[in-house]
Amino acid sequence: MGKNYYLYSSRNRKAYFSLPPHWSLSHFIENGEDVSVPSIGQMAQKALEAPLGTPPLKDIVSGAKKVVILVDDWTRPTPVADILQALLPYLVRNGLPREKVSIVIALGTHVRLTPEEVVARVGSSVASVYRIIQHDAWGHNLVPIPLPDGRVVRINPEVAKADLKIGMSSILPHPMAGFGGGPKIVIPGVSNFEFVRDHHMRHTIHPRSVAGLTEGNPFHESCLRAAQAVGLDFSLNCLYSQHGEVVSIIGGSLEAAFAGAVEACHKTLGVRFEEKVDVTITSTYPHTHGHQFCKGLNAPDRVTKESGAILMFAPLVKPVSSEFVDSFDQLKERSRNDPAGYVKEAMGQGKLFLADKPVEFNMAMSSVILRPKIRTILVSQMTPEEEARTMGFEYAPSVEEGVRLLGSEYPNARVAIFPSGGLIIPMTPV
Predict the structure, then answer these.
(1) Tell me, what's the pLDDT at 232?
(2) Rounded-to-integer distance, Cα 101 and Cα 193, Å
(3) Contact 418/271 with Cβ under 8 angstroms?
(4) Which residues are CB-contacts of 422 (< 8 A; sequence separation ≥ 6)?
């Protein structure tokens, strides 16, 4: 049988495979051939001129003395450099020269970018003439902002003193926040470690903190309220096709642009399932940086029977760190071999279950430890078999080998294929 199916390994590369003849295909989530879309610059220009919930950006920059642009890091696919090539000249044309503009990389609690990564992220021409700041969630000069519920968030001082704040991000399914981007460029993007830690641990295990859901989602709603208190004057939100291409950029106010982007995202990436399948074959794309691959578990977990299996292809461009892998053994030891109970208890109290590890380690690990007990086989050229098993996965050296293994163990399986599992929103009645 020919290799009729594929998984994305990058925006322009696919890993092809075939299915056993006795399997029946329930879903192959692809959206056909590429359609012609405007350039990133053209889409950004339209978003600046025809925003939602606010006048065009040129009408709100008047009188601004200090502008800050918040951008995300390499863990997100946002075409930051391309958008800046449209945004920065636009600001200059409307009276805001580079001396008034700073760019803050909204790292949240992520690791700082190297100088080379900064240049790659914003573009060499921008990096050479604009002031670039990497947010430090542990900084001593963070500025306190009181919130309506009595909490206090401390934010990056460059953001606090700006009288015009612009954010850009990607609206993607997020395992806890419903969707990434939007308010998350502010919270956790430029906030303090303690606030991020307490927020994430408190809200992650809530039953409505799931991908594709914002209404009644305390993780999202708390982020939004905090971001509103900090203030974001203009938001640029990138939308994607099921194969990772930016197909639209929606600009506007924090609330209206995010709501519009979420609505569009549901239409583009939402897939209805009437019942669960026996086997799901998925790529974690676009989550290709280290432990970010764990986000790729969300969609297959929601559509696969607990008696079934998931074959997960992780096309990593940056390996999972040994510290992250070793943390699984540490958790087993600290929990006396009850990691799920230990994690639930700690997070139920709003605490890190591994207090000596980064917040994102705790978040990614919780998505593995607390997921349904579905057999999962990992395929990753950057992850040795021993590391895969330490993280709780089985291992196959290739997608085809994984399919052969499952083909003999799941006869007559109903199968779903997610070429880009990180860009799918399953809509299920169960």
Answers:
(1) 96
(2) 25
(3) no
(4) 172, 173, 283, 284, 285, 286, 287, 295, 296, 299
Q: How many whole angstroms separate alpha carbon 212 and alpha carbon 262?
A: 8
If DSSP codes are grouped into helix, strand and coil, which group holds residue 3?
coil
CB 239 within 8 A of CB 249: yes
User: pLDDT, tens digit, for every residue of 155-194?
Assistant: 999 999 999 999 999 999 999 999 999 999 999 999 999 9
pLDDT in tens, 188-223: 999 999 999 999 999 998 999 999 999 999 999 999
Alpha carbon distance 423, 420 (integer Å): 6
Residue 430 has pLDDT above 60, yes or no: no
The domain spans of the chain are 5-30+273-427, 40-268
Checking if the pLDDT of 154 tops 60, the result is yes
Nearest one of 26, 15, 3 to 284, comparing CA atoms: 15
CATH class of 5-30+273-427: alpha beta
- Taking each continuous run of H as one helix and of E as one strand, the counts in the chain are 15, 20
Domain 40-268, second-level architecture: 3-Layer(aba) Sandwich (3.40)
Is residue 104 within 8 A of residue 71, CB to CB? The reply is: yes
pTM: 0.90
Q: What pLDDT is recorded for position 33?
A: 55
- CA-CA distance, 101 to 164, in Å (whole number)? 9
> For residue 188, is the peptide bond before it cis, meaning its omega torsion is within 30 degrees of 0?
yes
Helices 193-203 + 339-348 axis angle, to 10: 120
